[in-house]
């Protein structure tokens, strides 16, 4: 008997790509944590639950997919680094502040509070699709594995993998630097009413969002070499390309949803009321909202290029009429 025949393939559960299985795990975990948070009327575990969900899916699909080759270990390790860091950083921050201000208006309303947890279900599952798909394919960088499992083609580690790992790693580094610079800036009471424009924040108004986007583009790029475009079934190819939803969803949320729009726009009133409105406008004019970019070049760009290339949307600006609405919400 060929010794290679002992090489186990992925364990199929519900579907061969673990999408259904992963979705059910995510729904179950998030709704359980929601029930705890809603019944106890606190929000200390919201972000922690999301980050732990990433870790859980990465480890479970790695084991079920028997993907202990370089490709599977690498992408799973990257997920563990970024989400465990994020889990404990956000838990530490919310414990220090005693609450999460985002939920001040919905904490007592179970249905409104549930909306956040439903969003978190989509956030975790859609972002993790490239990792889930990669782990479900088994160690395709192992020629012995591909020989035994004839339905899977040997795919050596190559340029796409290195590019994906590079983007993933750079994204993690940017995110960590940005988070800690912002944390220590806000911790200083002298900075109340001012905005962060030091360190990496000098070149991007939200570099942590830029890091997050790079992470999930990197995860998708890691999928590209194992999508069997030539010999694969239409279902396998479609399942590979649907993982593109991960970086697209991340960009959509950060550009149009709960990212920059919630941080800027009418929420810039705190800077204007503190007398820092002119300084903010000068800063925003030379600093892109997400992409890290040299100030001198960005300041010279026409607004159409800023919008098209750097996602500088008019909704991010603060308008005087917003100040009246902030002072008098009933208006």
Write up what this structure looks like:
This protein has 331 residues and is mainly alpha-helical. The protein has two domains: 1-155, no CATH class; 158-331, no CATH class. 63% of the residues lie in helices and 0% in strands.
Percent strand:
under 5%
How many strands in all?
Answer: 0
Q: Structural class of the secondary elements?
A: mainly alpha
Radius of gyration: 22 Å
Query: How many angstroms separate the termini?
Result: 80 Å
Give the proportion of residues in helices. Answer: 55-70%
Mean pLDDT: 85
Tally of discrete structural domains = 2
> Which blocks of ≥5 consecutive residues have pLDDT under 50?
1-5
The helix/strand series, from N terminus to C terminus, equals HHHHHHHHHHHHHHH
Principal-axes geometry comes out as globular
Number of helices: 15
Major β-sheet annotation: none
List keywords for this structure.
globular, 15 helices, 0% strand, 63% helix
Brief description of this entry?
By secondary structure, the protein is mostly helical.
Q: What is the topological layout?
A:
Layout: H1 19-40, H2 46-64, H3 70-97, H4 110-136, H5 143-148, H6 159-187, H7 207-223, H8 234-241, H9 245-256, H10 260-263, H11 269-273, H12 277-286, H13 295-300, H14 303-310, H15 320-327
């Amino acid at each position: 008997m060929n010794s290679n025949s002992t090489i186990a393939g992925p364990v199929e559960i519900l579907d061969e790509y673990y999408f259904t299985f992963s979705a059910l795990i995510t729904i179950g975990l998030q709704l359980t944590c929601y029930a705890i948070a809603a019944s106890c009327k606190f929000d200390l575990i919201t972000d922690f639950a999301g980050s732990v969900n990433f870790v859980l899916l990465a480890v479970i699909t790695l084991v079920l997919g028997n993907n202990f080759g370089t490709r599977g270990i690498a992408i799973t390790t990257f997920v563990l680094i970024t989400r465990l860091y994020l889990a404990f950083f956000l838990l530490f921050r919310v414990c220090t502040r005693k609450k999460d201000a985002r939920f001040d208006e919905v904490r007592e309303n179970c249905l409104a509070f549930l909306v956040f947890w439903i969003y978190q279900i989509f956030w975790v599952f859609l972002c993790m699709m490239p990792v889930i798909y990669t782990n479900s394919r088994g160690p395709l960088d192992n020629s012995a594995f591909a020989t035994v499992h004839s339905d899977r083609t040997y795919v050596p580690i190559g340029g796409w993998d290195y590019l994906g790992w590079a983007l993933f790693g750079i994204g993690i580094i940017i995110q960590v630097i940005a988070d800690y610079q912002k944390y220590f800036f806000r911790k200083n009471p002298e900075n109340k009413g001012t905005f962060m424009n030091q360190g990496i924040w000098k070149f991007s108004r939200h570099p942590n969002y830029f890091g997050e986007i790079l992470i999930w583009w990197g995860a998708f790029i890691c999928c590209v070499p194992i999508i069997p475009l030539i010999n694969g079934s239409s279902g396998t190819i479609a399942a590979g390309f649907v993982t593109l939803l991960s970086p697209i969803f991340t960009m959509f949320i950060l550009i149009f949803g709960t990212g920059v729009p919630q941080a800027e726009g009418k929420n810039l009133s705190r800077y204007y009321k503190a007398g820092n409105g002119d300084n903010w406008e000068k800063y925003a004019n030379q600093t892109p909202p997400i992409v890290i970019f040299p100030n001198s070049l960005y300041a010279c760009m026409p607004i159409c290029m800023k919008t098209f290339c750097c996602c500088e949307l008019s909704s991010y600006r603060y308008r005087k009429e917003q100040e009246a609405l902030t002072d008098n919400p009933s208006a």
